Request: fold
Amino acid sequence: MLVVIHYAEIGLKGKNRPFFEGQLLGNLQRVLDPLAAPKTVRSRRLYGRLVVELPDQVPFEEVSRRIRRIFGVAHFGRARSCAPQPEEIEKTTVELMTERRPESFGIRVRRIEKRHPFSSQALATRLGAAVQAVTGARVDLGSPDVWVDVHVLSDEALIRAEQIQGPGGMPVGSAGRIVSLISGGIDSPVASLLALKRGCKALFVHFHSHPFTSAASQQKVRDLVALLAQYQGRSRLILVPFGTLQQTLVQETAPGPRIVLYRRFMLRIAERIAARNGAHALVTGESLSQVSSQTLANVDTINRAATLPVLRPLIGLDKAEIIERARTLGSFEISIEPADDCCSYLMPRRPATRTRPAQLEKIERALDVEGLVEAALARIEEEEIHAAD
Ligand code: ATP
Ligand code: MG
Reply:
């Protein structure tokens, strides 16, 4: 089985193109290799496309399901190979289209080997006429039912009459590493996925209050990371015990700005973890004005505790849009499972909506910030999470 893959924006990247293509090929091999015997899945570059060859008995359904999670793929489909002569190409194209029976079609020819004695245009016209004569389908170069992509190489031609939508984006890993702050909630898994879509590879960090709360939030986060691992491969999850720190803050500070204070500590700890792991940014599931800690004033106050960029992919999305994406990812059902991720006494009844940086700095001057951060870091645990099914 041959699968021809068209990629998204990578084509624009000039001299970096081989790097992006290499990353994409590696990511494809990672998900496709387990479907067949060792070394039987082969992939190669093809002048702005990628071709994967798999044993015929591998079910295409499964191949397709996996490729649809590889960021960087614009669209893909099975292809047939034949000799690069016009008669052969015509025969194979007509065969394919007789099986497909579309109402309309368009033909796109790319001649990679320019020495063949026919032009791309002449070949496209010839193929179009032949398909029309045999199937009765009409030519439509706007939005046909089926696009037929013909690649003519020096010793073979590849014909693809199937176009399955990929997820777009950039290959995971091509942008570098980030630390994703993941709670058990609805938002952060969606934020992580959007960061992955732009080529980031995420290291996940979760703050839990166990043993003050049950361990349920940790299991939820493991399940969420397993879903995200379908997109980026085996993933690391760092569990940070946060309960003792929260308890100290509850004893020593006023309740109003406490959530903002927790968040500032989370950013500080996450930033240390980022530094140890070569990550260049933090990612959160914050959106604007969704809850009290996400007013613009509080986002400002929280943000100042970090020196790394804090990416907030959801910043402009409505809750309904976020939920829709969570459903597509499959995380929604997990996120809404109840878990006492933070016991009520750690949460103020009326969180402040308009904190100021100076106010928090003053509160923190009375605390041993460094000692609290170090104490939490000393007790972190790390797990490897495999992709769900
Ligand atoms: P989510 O649905 O992601 O939990 P939320 O709407 O509940 O978000 P907040 O509770 O204000 O919003 O959290 C904002 C962001 O802070 C989260 O999206 C996440 O990135 C980070 N965060 C909050 N709590 C935790 C936690 N326990 N561990 C790791 N990150 C957290
Ligand atoms: Mg939350």
